[in-house]
Amino acid sequence: MKHIQKRFILFALFVVVPFLMNAQTPAENETDTITITNDPLVQVSYRKVAQSDILGGVSVVDLEELMKKNYNTYSLDNMQGYVGGFTGNALWGMGDYLVLVDGVPRAANNVLPTEIEQITFLKSAAAVVLYGSRAAKGAILISTKRGKNTPLEINVRANTGYHVSKSNPSYLGSAQYMTLYNEARVNDGQTALYSDEDIYNYASGSNPYRYPNVDFYSSEYLKSYYNRTDVSTEILGGNERAKFYANIGYYRENDALDFGEAADNFTDRLNIRGNIDLKLNDFIDAYINTNATFYNSRSGNSSEEDGNYWSAASTLRPNRIAPLVPLGFIDPNDQQSWNLINGSENIIGGQYFLGGTQVDQTNIFADYYAAGSSKWTSRQFQFDTGLDFDLSGVTEGLAFHTQFAVDYATSYSTSYNNSYAVYEPNWYNYNGDDVIAGITKYNNDEKSGSQNIGGSTNNQTIAFSGYFTYDKTFQENHNLNAMLIASGYQITNSGEYHRISNANAGLQLGYNYKKKYYADFSASVIHSAKLPAGNRQALSPSLSLGWKISEEDFMANSSVFDELSLNLSGSILNSDLDIEEYYMYEANYTQADGAWWGWYDGASERSTNSQRGGNDELDFVKRKEVSATLMASLWEKLLTVNTSFFINSTEGLLIEPSTIFPNYFFTYWPDASFIPNVNFNNDKRVGFDFNVNVNKQVGEVDLTLGVSGIYYTTEATQRDENYEYDYQYREGLAIDGIWGLESTGLFQSADEVTNSPEQKFGGTVKPGDIKYVDQNGDNVIDNKDEVYLGRGGWSGAPLTMGVNFTAKYKGFTFFALGTGNYGAYAMKDDAYQWVYGDRKYSEVVLDRWTEETKATATYPRLTTENGSNNFRASDFWMYKTDRFNIAKVQITYDLPQSLIQNSLFESIATYVSGSNLLTISKEKDILELEFDSAPQTRFFNIGLKATF
């Protein structure tokens, strides 16, 4: 049925589209087609402006042009390689940026690059002020493609490629694990758990069913590569009265698993987009944008306690179970065992039964063979429409624009959940051969045949904007533009009581003289229901000044500068983005957490306690910013430069303070507090971004080199804190600071432990444990000895950069993209690196401390306890995340027109590419490793694009 539906939709679009050609029009609105000129139009807040008139803090990527040499599958893929100021997850290091697709808040991953014309990055406060509170940390505007005043044009693109894993975790085999686990027990003063005979049997590999040695990453369970294939068709055209654009795309991607139900895992996506522009009459234009997306994802079921395959791979020790046991090992005379096996509904391949134990009555292998399958389904429908009124009949230069949008998204899961039996064999040796004599069965095979439906979610977005624009030139030299805006949207997510809301009114006034001197004032009045009555509105103003220096007379004969401009801006933005919840201004009282009180003999009552005080003066968080942008073009556009410097201060971040209220506002028993949330903490970011491009023709070869990046520092300029020692204060240090103990290696002897400060983190400290510095000299190591260790780069490393290179020769185009980040640190603090207790042993433990290896050991002694002394934040576990990635290489060949001029095709291009090819880093092994999720992959692709 689903295939019939897809074919019907595709057929309907092909039938309807030609008729729409006579009923569509261009709309001079915020989704107009970009004109490829020397001064292209760029989408900014609510309007398009010439790139030369932008006053700074804005970067743009012509994605339609970029896709001709760099095909990718995610809208924001490696954009830090082209855009200065974008770290990959934040703009100017602030995080939580707003994404608008055709002016509506939407997810960036639900619009594919083949559908996109242009992406604009609004970094400065001045650039985003008109969008109100939700854009206070920057905005990314994605503009989809529009129709053109051309005859019918059809573009078809097809790609297929393979993901190849970069690396897999390296866990120890059964014999090594058992040996080292014994060592850990002895270290803890316990006896060995595994005998030498057991370890020998597991090491010999003579019978992996009796003595299992499970490798989750072997070819028995994983594919060496898996496929992704996609195809998309674009249909566009129109005339003066109507234009249309349609995009129909489908992709299907498998995954790395290769056994049981999981061998058929896949994700697929069908999308249908239609954008229509209409000229209704001489003064009214209209547009309609629609998009429908159908996602499906199929996977094998897994039991709740095991999670998915990758989480099981990081926890299930190799000697626990044999996933499958051959029937041939069962004693032919053991009729009772054969009766149990013959009653099983899950004999795999006709020759294996599912292994298990009393402890492991379910496991991920048996799950994928026998527990059934699940399918996740998502349907998204997006619709927006708008009208543009030319009001020059009222006054010249006046226009009114309005947009209304409704998006719906639903998702749910369907599954067939089966129960299954596992069997624990009882082994013995007969004449030198291993034989199963006796089987214990756990659970039963049950298939209800019923389809279960769950995990249902529903999301809705409603958005509206209406705004007047005024654009007029007086006496040839005085250019005035203005906007008066009212806009808002609400996003409703199922299971959440409050909607995500944004409401604001905006005013923009711009003036330039001879396109030489610029001034712009923008402001928005915002509203937030997260704040108390009386504080729910605020004004966010911004002022920008620009000077196009290259237009001055003294620059007229310059042989160096083609263009040179300088822009300055200052802004104060109010936002509720950092106010996490509603009602944080209200006092909170609870009885559930109250203490028991005996008011009289024989009876007790639970007290009502205050958990938080109220604050009717709680206010917006403010982003105060000053920025400057320099843009230049030199030597006839041989070199172009766009760089911005910024200082911004985020002030009034919410906290429940512990030092600015008297201590009697809080009690430990009963646990009660009258301390309210207050605006107190302040953060500062200072930095600069840059885009530098060099364009040069050498003979018949066109060369382009682009370098982009951002460098910034962070500082906690105000904190509520009262520490005993100066080195403990966070104020004055990085916002994204990593704090922990300073280590001095490993204890080498019992005497050294005795003669060192006492380390009070639990357990007995022994030789082989990490030794820490006593920062305050009190002869005790505790949390008071934690110090600042370095920046974590949580919103981007201090330095993020990208390099892109293009070389064109005749029909060939070579493109390469590299990205890098430098100056940040991270901790080796996951279960792969921190091995203690009953955790699975990875290869890192091979460098453990022992009496024999203490001179070279780089890892603490092994322990079956919680290792609270060793496995805690300290520089012992820190590493630099500095890296440079060869993110993309693509070679494209455009067939000569002489070969296709008498065919159906207007153009044909073929290409091959590789993504995520190489990581250059001292810590490459860590940076490329995933131990509890699917492996990182390289992707090799071949594609074709044809225009009819």
Automatic annotation (TrEMBL):
Keywords: Signal
InterPro entries, A to Z: Plug_dom_sf (IPR037066), TonB-dep_OMP_SusC/RagA (IPR023996)
Keyword Ribonucleoprotein: no
First and last residue of the signal peptide: 1-23
Domain of life: Bacteria
Protein name: SusC/RagA family TonB-linked outer membrane protein
